[in-house]
Recover the amino acids of this structure.
């Protein structure tokens, strides 16, 4: 179980509300309203069609509550917990029309986010026993970054920046535009707040040597280096700065990258390429 404090419902509600408005359109659930008598009550279960790690159960609860606060929604597999194929993640009981109107939004979020959590857990398992932590990137679905990064936490991973304002991350284009590594680091030392962490990207060992010599950075992003070069970078660094390996981080490769001694491995695929887990609502 990856028990992390949940985001307050009030932060997630606008996202869920917008999704419900999108799904209900201008006239509401026409099918349900047409064929289901208003007084009909049912009980339903969110059931896993495949094994995985739960994420989005909090959001599913919000979706049902926003449609009808009188629905009784009970989470059986909380976010961050594993489940098997055929397992029941949650139960909901009450007015059938309300359950059906919230169903797709609840499942869309839960399936998508459980897919991210499950993929993250697979990467985390590959580096277990090393110092390396698996972290996500800003390669997220527009509008869904908050919940996709929350799903990474549910899978046992760690979060990188949530936005451009979280930290200073100097990438290759910043270095090119500013005139080199020394000028960007000198600018950081002259102007950056002492409360802000600074990371700089390098893709060659001579650049790493320049960063170590100049100072001003807290973290170095080792971009698209092969495994042997990463090991050399760890040796050069000798524990002075936090090292993050990035680029082409496939599940089949992360174990050997972790073995080099890097502190973090950032994996864009956690959020941009994870599949949607197959979950269903059964009456």
């Amino acid at each position: 179980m990856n028990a992390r404090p949940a985001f307050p419902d009030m932060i997630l509600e606008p996202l869920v509300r917008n999704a419900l408005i999108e799904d209900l359109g201008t006239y509401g659930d026409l099918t349900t309203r047409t064929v289901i008598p208003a007084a009909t009550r049912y009980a339903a279960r969110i059931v896993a069609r495949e094994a995985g790690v739960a994420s989005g159960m909090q959001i599913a609860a919000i979706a049902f509550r926003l449609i009808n606060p009188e629905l009784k929604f009970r989470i059986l597999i909380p976010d961050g917990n594993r489940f098997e194929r055929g397992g029941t993640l949650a139960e909901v009981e009450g007015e059938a029309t309300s359950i059906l109107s919230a169903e797709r939004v609840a499942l869309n979020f839960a399936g998508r986010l459980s897919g991210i959590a499950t993929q993250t857990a697979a990467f985390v398992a590959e580096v277990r026993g090393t110092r390396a932590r698996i972290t996500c990137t800003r390669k997220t679905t527009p509008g869904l970054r908050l919940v996709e990064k929350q799903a990474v936490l549910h899978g046992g991973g760690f979060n990188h920046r949530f936005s451009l304002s979280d930290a200073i991350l100097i990438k290759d284009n910043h270095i090119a535009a500013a005139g080199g590594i020394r000028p960007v680091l000198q600018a950081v030392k002259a102007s950056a707040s002492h409360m802000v962490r600074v990371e700089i990207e390098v893709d060659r060992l001579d650049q790493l040597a320049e960063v170590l010599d100049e100072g001003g950075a807290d973290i170095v992003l080792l971009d698209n280096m092969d495994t042997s070069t990463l090991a050399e970078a760890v040796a050069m660094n000798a524990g002075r700065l936090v090292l993050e390996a990035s680029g082409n981080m496939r599940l089949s490769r992360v174990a050997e990258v972790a073995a080099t001694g890097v502190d973090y491995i950032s994996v864009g695929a956690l959020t941009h390429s994870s599949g949607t887990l197959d979950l269903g609502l059964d009456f």
User: Anything to note?
Assistant: The longest helix spans residues 96-126. The radius of gyration is 23 Å.
